[in-house]
Amino acid sequence: MKLTSSRRSFLKNGSLAAAASALVLTNLNGCQPENKALKKPGQTPNTKFAVNIEIWWKDLPVLDRLEKTAELGFPGIEFWSYADKDLDAMAAKCQELGLSIRQFTAWGFEPGMNNPANHDLFEEKIKEAIQVAKKLNCPKATVVGGNDQEGMSREEMHENIITALKRVKPLVEEAGLMLILEPMNIRVDHKGHSLYGSPDAVRICREVNSPMVKINWDLYHMHISEGDLCGHLNEGFDQVGYIQVADHPGRKEPGTGEIYYPRVFKELKTLGYDGYVGLECWPLEGELAAAARVAQADKW
After folding, report:
1. Is 258 inside any structural domain?
2. Is residue 245 in a domain?
3. SS3 readout for the chain
């Protein structure tokens, strides 16, 4: 217990950020090429990570964010809306840098797919997302259930989500695009959202019953909503389509809060998850230090 407590305390203080940054910068600058143990922090030992470029280097132009991601050695990216981006330029730059685009957002909070009045529009947006995914060579797209609808019970809203997903099921199966349904948390970030925690999301996806409709299992949201991260992953793993992470409190990178991510990453590997893990977390002390913490959390 003393070793664990001491190590986690070290991860949280500024000396880790300074030491890790110095080590990484030495490697990137090529000052110690003879030491093959030194490498870019994004070249993590067990897990492949995709940087969320909406959050990391958010003040830089999009193409510069891609350059920064590659400089740190991360193999993939994810992002939110495609409406405000030059998709052709992104695709070309990612191909040049060897970056894989893992997922983007196809349907957000409003209007909710938990209301049948929006299902025609939902289908049109999924058709559009299929074309975007083809252009980006991207295998997955996030969809969100929607905020609470006046006059509807949570059960009714969930049934409407099932109806919407079944409607587009043939489209995404033919296209090979996996829709990943993301449950939120309503305690901290998304009060008034209709889908939170894993049991309802698992039930919805099992009822839709498609290899192309799974869950965007955001461990930050799940931790706040229900805890017992490894236990719930075991119970619903057949419906996991993608994993995202952030620590709590603060929604910063792993190693800054109360979640012991080495244990969770090891459990994912044990369960057989070999996909990417999205870094939808706000760097606490800059991107370089955040990358070092992510690499540390991926060691067990």
Report:
1. yes
2. yes
3. CHHHHHHHHHHHCHHHHHHHHHHHHHHHCCCCCCCCCCCCCCCCCCCEEEEECCCCCCCCCHHHHHHHHHHCCCCEEECCCCCCCCHHHHHHHHHHHCCEEEEEEEECCCCCCCCHHHHHHHHHHHHHHHHHHHHHCCCEEEEECCECCCCCCHHHHHHHHHHHHHHHHHHHHHHCCEEEEECECCCCCCCCECCECHHHHHHHHHHHCCCCEEEEEEHHHHHHHCCCHHHHHHHHHHHEEEEEECCCCCCECCCCCCCCHHHHHHHHHHHCCCCEEEECCECCCCHHHHHHHHHHHCCC
Active site residue 159: no
CATH number at 287 reads: 3.20.20.150
Note if 280 is an active site residue. yes
Domain total in the chain:
1
Per residue in 51-109, pLDDT tens?
999 999 999 999 999 999 999 999 999 999 999 999 999 999 999 999 999 999 999 99
Catalytic residue among 78, 253, 280, 287: 280
Residue 12 lies in a domain: no
The catalytic residue among 78, 182, 285, 287 is: 182
Asked if residue 4 is part of any domain, the answer here is: no
pLDDT tens per residue, range 210-221: 999 999 999 999
Domain span at residue 272?
41-297
| pTM confidence score | 0.89
